[in-house]
Predict the structure.
Amino acid sequence: MVVLGPFDRRTARTRCLACARRKIKCEGGSPCQYCMKRKQQCVPQAIQPQASIVFVNASAPCKRSGCLPLPPQLPTLRLCPKVSEGSSALFVKHFFSGFLARNDFGGPLDLGTIILEFQRSPSMYHASIALGALDLSRRPVPTLPPERKDAAVEAFTAYHTSIAKLKAEIISNKTPRDVNLWTTFFLGLFELMHDVTGEGWVKHFLYGTSTMLQLRGPEAHIAGPGRSFFLTARVFEICRALIYSEPTFLCQPEWISLTNKIWNEGNNKHWHPKELLFDLMIECSSISDRVWDLLKPGSNFPNMLLHRALFELAAEGFVIRSALADWFANFQKWSAGTGTPISHPSSVLATIYFHGISIYLSGIYDYRAQFNKIPTPTISQAAVQNHVDEILRVTEISLKTGNLAAVLFFFPLRVAGARVMTAREAESICAMLEEIKMRGFVVANAFTANLKFAYPTRAKTRLTITVRGAVEVIPTSAVKFVLDPVVINALPEGQEVVSAERYGNSAWASTARITARDSDGTLQHYFVKVVKRKLAGPRVLGEFSCMSELYKTMPSIVPAPRGSGKCLDSDDYFFLCDYLEIDHRQPDPVRLAESISELHRISVSPTGQFGFHITPYDGKLPLVAKWDSNWVSFYGKLLEGVYKLGILANGHWKRLDDAMKITLDKVVPRLLNRLYEEGRTVKPCLIHGDLWEENIGTDPRTGNIYIFDSCAYYAHHEMAIGMWRVGHHHMKAKEYRNEYFKLFEPDEPVKEYDDRNRLYSLKEKIMYSAHVPGTKAREQALEDMLYLIRKFVNQA
């Protein structure tokens, strides 16, 4: 039984392993004096976790050497003096006996170190309160203790306090201690339970936990508490790299060899075959990262060497594919030989990660046309389906019966979600993500939003579709899409529908690809979007009008709009345009700049004013875009309208309300009126209105850029670049803005361009918060507004 003594800032010392072996006094510190003289590694003793935790009551007698343990028969947890009063007692107790007990993080959780450091580290103490309070505030408890009513407020207060204490502790210690690592880990979990986008956790883990691990180096994690932390955090770092397609330091040779050193040190009681699988997952991440480096826009890799490099990466993939097959066979033998049940948490994790990485490895090559003529380790659709089935089956059982931390299921569910074949499978994944959300990890919302409309659309049966009012059975490999007669009639005259299949993704519509045959037998392809929700008519009409205006102005970068309107057999509305073979790689900055700058240069407002002739819709939300001859007035109304949408989605926030009022009253006139000084004018340019990476496609054969899903209107040309400053878009890199302004320079005063860009980005950040309530976009918008207010209002 581990005893948690008084939280009275006394320093509890534990001898290092070397001093303990020699049975001499350890002076403490890392390294200690003895180890420094011997020039050897100083490894603290690991405190073995026990089955239960007892908090010592304030009335329990204490001595300088520590607290006397309570009798083991006491049934309740009691707290030490400094946490025995107020709500902190409840939250700390829930953190240890509730949150940690319910969540197995896939590694040997060093509970002994956590409890020891809890008593010594203010940052760990407040982090435990933050997690305990936040988790308790969301638990479905029938009768609420009075302290729980303010649990959420207490959670955020403790979270910010913990961060401040952590900074102070890091500054005072050149090398991060074990407690600092565990604190960053728990604060990262808090982000997953608070931030629905997952952006906060990614930054926290990447720039906090991972960076601190690298600062300490591999040698600090071979044994002792450092070893336990590394094995726990490793799976989170692997999943971060795979889910977000980002590089990981675990691919570096010194970290690859660390796990061998860990298990060769003699303490193998925690070893499980999943550790070998994690090594293979790291190799998959490395291949994916190197493939991206070769094929990303702007890559300077010589074309004459590209085929050879891709061939070698495909060969590496075959080696990993073979290693995965061998691993699974050996895993089954090991399970049978050791009697380890498949329901063991580590075995469950190993099983679903094996199926997930098997699909992921194939996906590295599946979606890139450059591998079409190269043998690759892809797997058949039947094999993919088998892996998907196993992921869904094992995950569903584990969520119902196991105690694996729900966040560990994101990677396999994300991979499976991209490959499911039926609506039932899609609904199953959404249901599991909802269960994960109910367990406190609200970041599941981001995965649901990403997957809900992204399911592949292939099936294996003969399907019936409607063709010009008649029912025809045709052989096809696609999931059927029933075409309304009005949609069919919108096709060019003389064409006959061959097939209609679900295709592509949309957050607010059903989408499909239509194949039609001309009278001479030539096949033509079209894209249709059908909207079934409230206000579908104005939204579809808005998109058709915006795309038509773009096509009329510069047809070389827009798929030709063919029609829109109300369906005959339902209350749905449709939008029809040409289908283009494009991929969604990051657009090449130079070619994108050439296309967009040309669009802005040649466009002419039909009224000579800013705005649009109908209401454009940004996704499902309308923009205030009535004609206005003055850009200052137009942008103020546009921003105010977007802010009202943000309030409807998120509610009022006084600090933001006050800052927005000053921004509209003071900052907008101050910055934008300068555009008109000295006789200057502002040209109304046709802008796309929502030009982020998902609304841009690249022809894989020619490299030509295409834009779609528009909410266009006539605006100051710099307005189009404002959203390229937003953190949740991949096009935030300054390279995109710099290339654009090489071709279409900022207006005078140029020295205030960056401030105008910051001002224009407010529209996108607040609109994003209206689409995805609870994100940090509002906080980011507030920071930008306060910056502009300090610069242009307070100093005026």
Notes: Confidence is low (pLDDT under 50) at residues 1-13, 46-85, 453-478. The two ends are 65 Å apart (CA to CA). The chain is about 50% helix and 10% strand.
